[in-house]
Amino acid sequence: MKPQPKSGVLDIEIYVPGKSRAPEGIKLHKLSSNETPLGPPPAAVEAARQALLHLEQYPDGQASDLKAAIAEVHGLNPKNILCGNGSDELLGLLCQCYLGPGDEAIHTEHGFLVYGIQIRAAGATPVVAPEKDRTADVDAILARVTEKTKLVFLANPNNPTGTYLPFDEVRRLQAGLPGNVVLVLDAAYAEYVRRNDYGAGVELVSATDNVVMTRTFSKIYGLAGLRVGWLYGPETIVSTLDRVRGPFNLNAAAIAAGAAAARDRAFVEEAARFNAEWLEWTAKALEGLGLEVTPSVGNFLLVHFDDAAGRGAAEADAFLTERGFIMRRVAGYGFPNALRMSIGTEEANRGAVAALAEFLGRSS
Ligand code: PMP
């Protein structure tokens, strides 16, 4: 007999991240992982550099300074915050602590791939709720709740669609769930959203005892390489996850850089402004080429190649890669004929549009 992993684990498809290479000698414009084109905040780089001088020491297992910075900036109590090695880790901890064999967890049709992976890794069953107009559908989610349901994942805004659910709808979702079901609001892209009817979830977490919100420093804060995420939730849930996490789940450079980045509010404001400007420009330019683009409030666009263009995403991807523009294939998310493009530098955005115009045989 050979060792066998627990049931369900071998059904998991390996998560393949966005490509990060261009052909030799071609300038790389990596637009495949929704990273910021603006780099990390200089204050965070300096804080990380200082932390590297003490590598012989374990990091602070409580990540106290990082929690304090997050609490200060968002007006929260540090007791309600848990930091993770990226928000991916926190999503996994939620599954580890709240799911087991026989349980179900719901996510939406085009939801973030990590949900399905972590639900299966916990031995539970993912239940997929269809979307409406590539947007989460509260009624479809609620219709799938059974007595086996323990978690509901909602990425808001969602990756890879870039669509969002207005706060009233999120509130309606929470109100419709049984009290023992934890609603996970994954707000990885919250800082980019400029809509009055959007809320990342802070108010809902504060007002209820079955909602958590996850956030990340990987996107607008420019620290994807250090892996820093955080969760805001009721003390009982935070303390549950706290027991199961690795004792030193964040490294010292991540804690120091995260705290410095959290406090650099001017950096985030400028990054949000830059993104809004280029998100709009890029969406319009792509539509001008006859491509369908899903309306996005994040830092990326889902670009469809179906009817308008007549040629497929795979060909477009190969054409773009040859020219150094690396985008994300999203077949694994249920979009075989689309590419996800992160908003990049001005040069990258203009260059990608020009390359797509060439691909389609049109002028940009
Ligand atoms: N949630 C969503 C919706 C994401 O798109 C991502 C990053 N791709 C994450 C969570 C994970 O972010 P990280 O682990 O880098 O914090």
How would you characterize this protein structure?
The chain has a seven-stranded mixed sheet with strand order 2-8-7-6-5-3-4, with helices on both faces. A four-stranded antiparallel sheet has the order 9-10-13-12, with helices on one face. Strands 1-11 form a two-stranded parallel ribbon. The longest helix has 24 residues, at 265-288. It folds into two domains: 23-39 and 266-360, Aspartate Aminotransferase, domain 1 (Alpha-Beta Complex), CATH 3.90.1150; 42-263, Type I PLP-dependent aspartate aminotransferase-like (Major domain) (Aspartate Aminotransferase, domain 2), CATH 3.40.640. It has 364 residues and is α/β, with parallel strands linked by helices. It is globular and about 55 Å long. The protein is built from twelve helices and 13 strands. Helix content is 37%, strand content 16%. The protein has helices at 42-51, 64-74, 86-98, 113-121, 138-143, 167-176, 202-207, 235-244, 252-263, 265-288, 313-322, 346-360; strands at residues 29-30, 81-84, 104-108, 125-129, 149-155, 182-186, 211-216, 229-232, 292-294, 300-304, 325-326, 328-330, 335-342. Bound molecules: 4'-deoxy-4'-aminopyridoxal-5'-phosphate (PMP). 4'-deoxy-4'-aminopyridoxal-5'-phosphate is lined by residues 34, 86-88, 112, 155, 159, 186, 188, 216, 218, 224, 229.
